[in-house]
Amino acid sequence: MIDLRTVDLNLLIALNVLLEEQHVSRAAQRINLTQSATSRLLGRARDLFDDSLLVRSGSAMMLTERARSLQPQLRETIEQVQSLFEAPAFDPATTERRFRILGTSYVAQTFIPAVVRRLADHAPGCSLAIENILPTRSWLHEQTHVDLAVFGTGIEVPETFHVRRVGSDNMICVMRRDHPAARGKFTLKKYVAFDHCLLSMGGESFTTTIDRALDEHGLTRRAVLKLPQVMACMEVAGCTDLFFTVASRLAENFLDLFDLTMRPLPVDFPELIYRLGWHPIHQNNPAHQWLRQACAEEIAGLLERR
After folding, report:
1. What does the pLDDT profile of the chain (306 residues) look like in tens digits?
2. The domain spanning residue 201 has which CATH number?
3. Are residues 10 and 150 in the same domain?
4. What are phi and psi of 297, to 5 degrees?
């Protein structure tokens, strides 16, 4: 048995051309070598396969039986080796891949419908699973089966993750349309005078940032309800006197549904920055590259229209 460590791939490439051309000079031109160098390669190939491979017949050269049997195998072998260095093709129109995205209930409510429409139009055979994100780096690092995390300020991802910013949003306060605080200017005094409903994400979230901002003014707010779903918070705000502080892009979509109105926060609060994050193992995967580009375009488009 031949020791593959002793086989020169360039020799097989040259032999494939020699068998196709059945002419040393023409083969030399194709592989950009001199005629004498190409002749030496033919000699090495004859030794390797223990066969003449090409024999002269008059003014032409002919393939031996061994060469004829080798020719299709050579072509296939070279094509297979070339394919090792080519990224697998991805066609969204024919894929049946199942994509998995991590996000909060806010992400699912605000951004995912547009992503679903994009996939339905361009990748109708794929499916999508949305899983709840937790705000801890160590947990996220273990989710290698997940394609993409869509997250905003307050969620940390491992330092090894690739991250792409897709846009920003502002925090606002929503309340029922006929709320007493909705009349006149919405002041800081009004903001802390009424009770609040909070969205619970586990761990530290943007709510603590708001509380720190209030603390700088010597003020606190009273949170009397925590809920795990953003839509539940919106509905509660629409039927009680509770305030709910949320990103404006989502609130705008559901003001009429829950009979809400919204007001700018009367306290300085940094923009919410939204990003995509993914594990390094997905970086060069064509399907994943397509997915994150589609998500980035749809989410950025929504945030730009606010």
Report:
1. 677 777 788 999 999 999 999 999 999 999 999 999 999 999 999 999 999 999 988 878 899 999 999 999 999 999 888 888 877 789 999 999 999 999 888 888 899 999 999 999 999 999 999 988 876 555 555 666 889 999 888 787 888 899 999 999 999 999 999 999 999 999 999 999 999 999 886 544 555 678 888 988 999 999 999 998 889 999 999 999 999 999 999 899 899 999 999 999 998 888 889 999 999 989 999 999 999 999 999 999 999 875
2. 3.40.190.10
3. no
4. -65, -45
- pTM score of the predicted model: 0.72
Domain housing 59: 4-83
Q: Who's near 103: CB < 8 A, 6+ residues apart?
A: 111, 112, 130, 131, 132, 133, 149, 150, 151
List, in sequence order, every residue forming a beta bridge with 54; answer none if it has no partner.
Answer: 63
- 123 plus 154 within the same structural domain: yes
